[in-house]
Design goal:
Length: 77
C-alpha cells in the first residue's frame, strides 16, 4: 500500500508517497547508519538529481542500498 508521509527538510515541510515496504526499509537503513530518519531523507533529498522527485529518489536509494551499493557513513558538515 502506498502512503503519504511528510518531513521537514531544511525548515520546509514536504510530503512524498512511498509503499510501506520502502518506508520500513528506510527506517532500517537509518537505524543501521545510526542517523535519524529525517536526517537520512534530507541527505537523499540534497543529493538527488534536480529532475528526480523525492519519492523516486527514496526508492532508488533503498534499491541501491539493498544491492550493496552503499555510501560511506555520514560525516558532520
Amino acid at each position: 500500500m502506498i502512503r503519504k508521509h511528510s518531513a521537514t527538510l531544511h525548515g520546509h515541510r514536504t510530503s512524498f508517497s512511498l509503499e510501506d515496504e520502502f518506508w520500513d526499509e528506510l527506517k532500517r537503513i537509518a537505524a543501521q547508519r545510526q542517523m535519524s530518519l529525517a536526517g537520512l531523507i534530507a541527505r537523499i533529498d540534497d543529493e538527488r538529481p534536480p529532475e528526480s522527485n523525492l519519492s523516486s529518489a527514496l526508492r532508488v536509494y533503498v534499491l541501491r542500498w539493498l544491492r550493496g551499493e552503499r555510501e560511506p557513513a555520514p560525516t558532520d558538515h
